[in-house]
Amino acid sequence: MSTVTAPADERVAKTSVITRLMRRPEIGALMGLIVVYIFFSVVDQTGTFSGLTGAARWTDVAATTGIVVVAVSLLMIGGEFDLSAGVMIGTAGLFAGLLITEYQMGVWLAIFLTFIFAAGIGFINGWLVMTTGLPSFIVTLAMFFSLRGINLGVTKAITDTVRVAGVDEGAGFDSARVVFASEIIPPYNFKIAVVWWFVLVAIATWVLTRTKFGNWIFAVGGDKNAARNTGVPVRRTKITLFMLTSMSAALVGIISLLRLRSMQAGQGVGEEFVFIIAAVVGGCLLTGGYGSAIGGAIGSAIIGMAFIGIAYARWNTDWSWLFLGLILFAAVLVNTLISRRFQGVRR
Amino acid sequence: MTDVTPALQLVDVSKSFGSVIALRNVSMHVDNGSVTCVLGDNGAGKSTLIKILSGVHEPSEGQLLVNGAPKRFTSPRDALEDGIATVFQDLATVPLMSVWRNFFLGNEPTEWPWPFRRLNAKKAKSICKAELLDMGIDIRDPEQPVGTLSGGERQAVAIARAVHFGANVLILDEPTSALGVKQSGVVLKYILQAKERGVAVVFITHNPHHAYLVGDRFYLLNRGQMMAEYTRSEVSRDELVKAMAGGAELEALAHELENL
Ligand SMILES: Nc1ncnc2c1ncn2[C@@H]1O[C@H](COP(=O)(O)OP(=O)(O)OP(=O)(O)O)[C@@H](O)[C@H]1O
Ligand SMILES: [Mg+2]
Prior knowledge:
A: mainly alpha; B: 6-stranded mixed sheet; binds magnesium ion
């Protein structure tokens, strides 16, 4: 007889800490992060990549990507895509910028209205997906092209240029800049966006794992029919996720509008795939129903390191896209192998 | 108390999916404190019928009455709010989610005030484990993904969940198809216990012996139409077996019957 006091179920083999760690959706991304960090620290030509000076740079890229990736990850876990998330950054920035410069609106009011507007765009995405039953890939692709056209068309029609500038003359610009576009921790000067990013990742993680809504996100992405049949409001859940995604893109749009004091009509285009890559690298299942917000954050950090690391290595930044391609493939491969080895989940 | 208003009633209900007519002019009623069995061949329309009762489908024609009043369910959530819980034939579980999360899906217990309101995971896990133990299913760990359970275990999760939430009506679509003899017996006992509590039970099964053991009223469905309705006193077990099996496999079935 063994002398175990609490009789654990004898059919459960003891899982080691390693196995439990390996079962986390973000483990592949975490290993990737370490590899990428070491790699760029080695090839670094400036001698600052591995320290806080470098961190202040790559966390900036990671944060402005990662803020949207948080929402894109939740959306992907909920079984949908949003290809309009990138262009939405530009749309939101232009919308706020035009309100401030052309309609003399206060900056804070403009920001508030921009979030409402973004929520509306997200609602349209979600409503169309749920009502037509078309794949979100198609619906949001259509939204992507529409917004891309509107961004250019409206900006040209109103300003006769392809950018909106002069936002810094709006009332409340300075206080808004402190909240959305200031720098902290001198002398390294981390961007405040990093704080936004951390807070959003923390909230999203809590929502996903500890709340009713989080439960519903996993359910609608895992099996929409089962979710509906057990009484989950599938439609409301998915539409909410689309709205959160557009609003997170709007936050990044506002951050960059306040930083640069202007907005280009083409801003954000192309970013949508970077968001999806970060979420997938972070262990979110493309088919939905599985993943984590922290995984998406690690994916974003890898992307931040890649962009800054390549510049610090004094390579042509064009190579970052090749790098992203390889990282995506490697991370998904590793995730798949790990889950086969450790998960024990019959898929 | 002579409560004669049926808990659920269908009046001349038809349901078509495009050109497929799954149900044609079906009328039935389900009383509180009784077990109503729906019998019929594969493809007869039994699942379609109960999906109308549980809010998955809206009838193409005809009416659904809940406690005597016409009602439109636009989703199963509406039906659940009226205390109508269902074990679907496909079980409606999400494979990648844990047992306890599946058990409480759509009905999660929460704690703490808004905006900190969160799942009461501890309570959920202990209820889930206890309810499954009651069924004779000792799951290893409520954190285990449902997709890794055996077919019977998964069925037990779906049944325990419906029994837990079905305050007024309990609908079971072939709930015992994957269960062992003991667990099937437990399910039949559950059905009778729910009936005692005044719950209206709708029980779909291909097993006429099971049906006869617990049923008070039997509906025979064939090719989307209601062929016959019997109350328990009007029909013998053999007649029921004959009506379902067509008499051909009677010997084998009779044998099985002895072993029950
Ligand atoms: N969503 C749907 N779209 C098209 N046809 C359907 C749909 N649902 C059911 N049907 C058709 O309706 C008929 C009845 O199906 P149903 O699932 O109700 O049968 P059943 O009596 O439950 O059979 P079984 O005993 O095999 O479970 C079948 O011919 C099926 O093909
Ligand atoms: Mg069926």
